[in-house]
Design a protein that fits this description.
Layout lengths: L9 E8 L10 E10 H9 L8 E5 L5 E5 H5 L7 E10 L2 E4 H4 L5
Antiparallel strand pairs: 1-2, 2-5, 3-4, 5-6
Length: about 110
């Protein structure tokens, strides 16, 4: 993914909320993400056929799953969805990779 889309890669800083939050929880953090707009990846790598699609389902290695409507995936409003393949978290004011945060290196 990285080498095939290097010219399209975008990096950005984002505050995000933990997907495991229960109503009333407020687990948030900040991080730097790098990736490509999801629609470009789906079109170029998977040849997505949008004519009959209604939703795009995401399943993660840890068992988490979610989905978005076709309209949301195809839209850049309010911002495009990204396939992020690099994430650096900000802890105690310092940018760190995931590997720095885990003694065992994942």
């Amino acid at each position: 993914v990285i080498s095939a889309h290097a010219s399209e890669e975008e990096s950005f800083f984002q505050t995000y909320q933990c997907v495991g939050n229960k109503p009333g929880d407020f687990l948030v953090s900040n991080g730097y993400f790098s990736g490509v707009p999801l629609r470009r990846f789906l079109d170029s790598e998977l040849g997505a056929d949008w004519s009959s699609a209604r939703r795009v389902v995401f399943r993660c290695f840890d068992g988490y799953s979610t989905n978005h409507s076709k309209e949301r995936v195809l839209s850049d409003d309010p911002a495009p969805l990204y396939l992020a393949y690099r994430f650096d978290i900000v802890l105690r004011g310092r940018r760190q990779t995931m590997f720095e945060n885990r003694p065992e290196g994942m």
